[in-house]
Every structure is written in C-alpha cells, then in structure tokens.
Amino acid sequence: MSSASASSVPSTQTTAPVPSASLPSPREEASGLVPVTELLHGVALATEVVQESVEALDATAVRAPSLLPGWSRAHVITHLARNADALVNLLTWAKTGVEHPAYASRADRDADIEEGANRPLQLLRADLDSACLRFAAAAEALTPSAWNAEISPPAGASIPAHRVPFLRLRELWFHLVDLNVGTGFGDLPPERLEAFVDDAVCVLRTHDDAPPLRLVVELPDGRQRTWEVAAGGASPDEVRGSAADVLAWLTGRHDGTGLIGTTPELPDWA
Description:
The chain is of the alpha+beta class. The chain has eight helices and six strands. The strands form two sheets. It has a four-stranded mixed sheet with strand order 4-3-5-6. The chain has a two-stranded antiparallel sheet with strand order 1-2.
C-alpha cells in the first residue's frame, strides 16, 4: 500500500465540521447503529487519504492508466470531483425540497469527466479539493429533518438523504483503489468492508442477468456471513473468500482468482 494508506492517517483528522444529526447509515439503517456524523467523519478520513495520494502524483503519473478501462488517473480524479458536486446537488434537493438531480444527464456527466481529465495536474488537484469542501459544507448545512428527505440518485429508486454520505464514502475508497497507486481492497478500513460487500450484493440483485449465487464471506473481525442472490430458481454457485477479495470481484476490479468455488460471470458493475 502507498504512503497515503488508510492506516497512515489518524482517525481524528477531518477536512470539515460534520453535522450533529444522528440518523442511520445505509448499512445499519434498520438498527441505527451508525449515525450520519460517524459516516461523515469516515468521508473526511477517506478524503484526506485520496488527497494525499493525488498530491503524490507528478505530471507524468497522473496521465498513466488507472485500473478502470479507458480512464487515466486524471479521469478518476475528475470523476471524484464531479461525484462530490453531484451529491451536493442531492443534498441541496434534501435541504430545499426542490428537485435537483445529481447530473443533468449521463452524457453531460461523461463529457465533463472527459474534458476535465485533460487539465494540468495543479488544476486537477484544486478542483478535487474544492469539490470535497463543497460536499462537506453542504452536509454540514443539513438539518436532522432534511437528512430524512427523499431524493433520487442517478440510478435506482429514491432514497433518504442520510444515505448520501455512504455513497460518497464508497466512491472515495473504491476509486482510491482505481487510481492504481498501491492501495487494494485489503487496505480499506476493515470496519467498512462488511457494509461495502452488503451494498455490492444489493447492487448485483438489481440486475436481471445476475447469476444465482451464494457468497460465504470471512469478515475482518473473524465472523463469517452469507449472502445469496437467487435468480431464476436455479441452484446457486457457492463462492467463498475474504471480504476484500469478494468485494474486488463483485465490483469488477478482480477476476476472482483466489476465491474458492466456481465464480460465474457477473454483470458490469454500475
């Protein structure tokens, strides 16, 4: 893992104040174990790790390929900035009650990333830093009632606004891996992996072409948890592995080598 790893940043660091709301996060929504404040502290930590990794790049390295097909590291950095702004739009929707979509359109989103990726490294860094600060400020401005407002992300059904911090947390850690700077899924904060696997399974279940699948996952705390994707009534393939390895496979970042069992072809991660 690079020097900008999760373990290199003290857990007390934050990039901006976080709100006092205490609403459930997406992973523990039913039980309410993790409040919005805790997730936003996690976003602040992940933001600092990403910023340190970007700061370590030079003008040549930022043009090198990322782990995402067709994207350089500059594309990933630009995407992270535009994702922050997209989520600010959703938080503005929650705050005002006026519909404010994340992106004008998918085509506009893709064009913004392609155009932005061509900028000099200094501008890429400044754009990312500014977008992250805008997200932190928008989150800080939300009241507890606004965190409960229903909004619509770019894909999927409407969600309460208090799911937005998890969406940002997922983007930051996953795309840090995609930057190809020495960080893998095994380097992500272990306390986040179960939630990320749970979320990835939920995404997989939304695909009509998802294969029937049973996942037996070894979690970082020593527990074992099973997830099932039942499609078409067929007998599921059973796949076993660590949370990090399963997550890398589910999100299309790894071919499943090292997992135990038959790994069926998965739909594209989206």
